[in-house]
């Protein structure tokens, strides 16, 4: 059975996008990037030998990549079949981005992840969902594709998501030296800064959707 095509445009050609591709990359970096997953991944794989850690990292990357591609093919098409207005999609996307940003800020006050049992491989499914690829990351991908307005931007969005997953893979492969050289504190500070940037982008989406509603 043939796979469905990528989502058809719901935004007219030539429309001004609220988020640039650079801002889309930033959202993906925050939502499915290594800043949020490096700590849990390091804790879950702390008891593994280096070779086993690399195997786990590659498996997590492969499953995450397949999930992103599947969501790109199926999720946005399903969403479009419901005939949801682009303004509503944009408002929903902004709301999701805002809630995720607030979650990132609050996550700094949670207890750290427990270390893995030496010699015991961590559950791959948990390292994929939600550590590397949380549900809100998939939701963001689907909404952005549904609002893409054309195949060129759709492919760019999918490519940016895949590029962030490649960054995840590199960080997972070198997680131990990275944490030795950098430590957790700079990553927490960076996460807080990125969280504030995401709040601003989310509010930008929400306000734009409200203006669309008031304008017609």
Gap between N and C termini: 41 Å
What is the count of distinct domains?
1
Number of strands: 0
Helix content: over 70%
Short description:
It is built from nine helices and no strands. With 216 residues, it is mainly alpha-helical.
Notes on the protein architecture:
The chain has 216 residues and is mainly α. The chain has one domain. The protein is 74% helix and 0% strand. It has 9 helices and no strands. The protein has helices at residues 21-32, 34-44, 50-81, 86-107, 124-132, 135-146, 151-173, 175-181, 184-215. Helix 1 (21-32) packs across helix 9 (184-215), helix 3 (50-81) crosses helix 5 (124-132) and helix 4 (86-107) runs antiparallel to helix 9. The longest helix has 32 residues, at 50-81. The relative contact order is 0.23. Residues 1-14 have low confidence and may be disordered. InterPro entries: Multi_antbiot-R_MarC (IPR002771). One of its GO terms (cellular component) is plasma membrane. Belongs to the UPF0056 (MarC) family. Its main location: membrane. The chain crosses the membrane at residues 24-44, 56-80, 87-107, 127-147, 154-175, 187-210.
């Amino acid at each position: 059975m043939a796979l469905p095509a990528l989502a058809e445009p719901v935004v007219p050609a030539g429309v001004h996008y609220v988020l640039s591709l650079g801002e889309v990359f930033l959202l993906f970096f925050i939502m499915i990037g290594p800043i949020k997953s490096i700590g849990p991944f390091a804790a879950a794989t702390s008891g593994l030998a280096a070779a086993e850690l690399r195997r786990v990292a590659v498996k997590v990357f492969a499953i995450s990549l397949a999930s992103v591609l599947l969501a790109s093919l199926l999720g946005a098409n399903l969403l479009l079949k419901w005939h949801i207005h682009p303004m509503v999609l944009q408002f929903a996307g902004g709301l999701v981005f805002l809630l995720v940003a607030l979650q990132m800020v609050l996550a700094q006050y949670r207890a750290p992840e427990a270390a893995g049992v030496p010699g015991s491989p961590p559950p791959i499914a948990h390292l994929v969902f939600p550590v590397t690829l949380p549900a809100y990351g998939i939701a963001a991908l689907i909404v952005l594709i549904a609002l893409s307005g054309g195949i060129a931007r759709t492919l760019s969005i999918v490519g940016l998501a895949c590029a962030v997953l490649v960054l995840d893979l590199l960080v997972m492969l070198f997680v131990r030296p990275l944490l030795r050289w950098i430590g957790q504190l700079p990553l927490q500070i960076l996460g807080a800064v990125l969280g504030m940037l995401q709040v601003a982008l989310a509010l930008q989406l929400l306000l734009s959707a409200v203006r669309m509603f008031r304008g017609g």
